[in-house]
Amino acid sequence: MALRVCVFLLLSIVVCSCTRYEPTWESLDSRPLPSWYDDAKFGIFIHWGVFSVPSFGSEWFWHSWKTGVKSVVDFMKSNYPPDFTYADFAREFTAELYNPDHWADVFKASGAKYVVLTSKHHEGFCNWPTNVSFNWNAQEVGPKRDLVGDLAKAIRKRTDIHFGLYHSLFEWYNPMYLQDHENGFKTRYFVERKSMPELYELVNTYKPEVVWSDGDAGPVDYWNSTGFLAWLYNDSPVKDTVVTNDRWGAGTSCKHGGYYTCQDRFNPGKKQNHKWENCMTIDSGSWGYRRNVDLANYLTAHQLITTLAETVSCGGNLLMNIGPTHDGRIVPVFEERLRQMGEWLAVNGEAIYGSVPWSHQNDTLTKGVWYTSKKTDDGGTAVYCIMLAWPENDVLKLGSASPQTGLAVSMLGYPGLVKWTPLGGTAGIQLQMPVISAAKMPCRWAWVFKLTYQSV
């Protein structure tokens, strides 16, 4: 009898660990999100393509040109001959200064735990030597190299960062897509011959742990997104670790997929019921690199850390975008911001990585204070109070924190305890800021207090 019970339990474990997902949203949405993604909290987005050559306006340069946006039309008239086409930009997408090892080192220094590289944007140019694109790819024209593969190798060789890929489902001016669109998406020439074969090729070749889909120009049935996701979760080489977003066709955003992006720069300011991601840009006006950007358009380190605190406190991940140049450089302002994020996370990462939302996301009394939390080894709770601005009178009043017996308060990166006193009643405490010299200040922008509550 004991042997039979053991065999039954063993078989049950095997069955439970071999869940098969059906190509329906009900089944696919039931898949648990791999835990590494929620723990990671912070990633780097990279928009790089032929649009990096004109580097004017935004990564939507081609579409803006074709649809008559005046600034773009005037730019082309002033700088290029009348017969110049967008395809002619590809030969100038040279990437001669592209050093994937340097990129990997910068990303590691930023404190990011995952990276998502553009494999193909809406322009249709593929940054890898795909078998389903005639010559509109980085191996055949421009760089003459595998931009995706080179970065994947560098990331995996030099860091423990998870490697991911962005892929646009549709292409603005691909003749097959335009034909399917003209046919009311009743035909699927583009999906069957181009878009879906690319996705399978990318996953099988580069094994990305994030598949970041974009472009809802067409219904889900047209794209057969559920069929691809069922294969991805069941049979792909990354089936156990891959995470996906929610942009898999019209109507899926913020409703289906592994985690929700909802819209670009989504930052709701309150806790969400489903795992989500805030994808945003250091250059507030563009995802791709642009030469006509003003300094004021670059978010400061303080603004970026503020966005990180707001996002993580509400249960989200921050995916922060940079745009490399046509020749493969991460320009100094982007590198500086990445390294500044890493500098801050080196001190305060305990409050970010692996954290969960607390009962309060921001403070009820003082603005510019956000909370995260973790369980302590002894069963208590560590609450992390992220203070975005130093209080003028050196006293921080926290309406959300309770003055429980045994509460210990410290500042991350600074030795010793921080003095606290009750505000009065059953809720609220105030912290007396420690006297710290400039040389010993643990960080430059935002400061984190750790409130350790004992188990009850």
From TrEMBL:
<dbReference type="InterPro" id="IPR016286">
    <property type="entry name" value="FUC_metazoa-typ"/>
</dbReference>
<dbReference type="GO" id="GO:0004560">
    <property type="term" value="F:alpha-L-fucosidase activity"/>
</dbReference>
<dbReference type="InterPro" id="IPR000933">
    <property type="entry name" value="Glyco_hydro_29"/>
</dbReference>
<dbReference type="Pfam" id="PF16757">
    <property type="entry name" value="Fucosidase_C"/>
</dbReference>
<protein>
    <recommendedName>
        <fullName>alpha-L-fucosidase</fullName>
        <ecNumber>3.2.1.51</ecNumber>
    </recommendedName>
</protein>
<dbReference type="GO" id="GO:0005764">
    <property type="term" value="C:lysosome"/>
</dbReference>
<feature type="domain" description="Alpha-L-fucosidase C-terminal">
    <location>
        <begin position="361"/>
        <end position="452"/>
    </location>
</feature>
<comment type="function">
    <text>Alpha-L-fucosidase is responsible for hydrolyzing the alpha-1,6-linked fucose joined to the reducing-end N-acetylglucosamine of the carbohydrate moieties of glycoproteins.</text>
</comment>
<keyword id="KW-0326">Glycosidase</keyword>
<feature type="domain" description="Glycoside hydrolase family 29 N-terminal">
    <location>
        <begin position="19"/>
        <end position="350"/>
    </location>
</feature>
<dbReference type="GO" id="GO:0016139">
    <property type="term" value="P:glycoside catabolic process"/>
</dbReference>
<feature type="signal peptide">
    <location>
        <begin position="1"/>
        <end position="18"/>
    </location>
</feature>
<dbReference type="InterPro" id="IPR017853">
    <property type="entry name" value="GH"/>
</dbReference>
<keyword id="KW-0378">Hydrolase</keyword>
<dbReference type="InterPro" id="IPR013780">
    <property type="entry name" value="Glyco_hydro_b"/>
</dbReference>
<dbReference type="InterPro" id="IPR031919">
    <property type="entry name" value="Fucosidase_C"/>
</dbReference>
<keyword id="KW-0732">Signal</keyword>
<dbReference type="Pfam" id="PF01120">
    <property type="entry name" value="Alpha_L_fucos"/>
</dbReference>
<feature type="site" description="May be important for catalysis">
    <location>
        <position position="279"/>
    </location>
</feature>
<comment type="similarity">
    <text>Belongs to the glycosyl hydrolase 29 family.</text>
</comment>
<keyword id="KW-0325">Glycoprotein</keyword>
<dbReference type="InterPro" id="IPR057739">
    <property type="entry name" value="Glyco_hydro_29_N"/>
</dbReference>
<dbReference type="GO" id="GO:0006004">
    <property type="term" value="P:fucose metabolic process"/>
</dbReference>
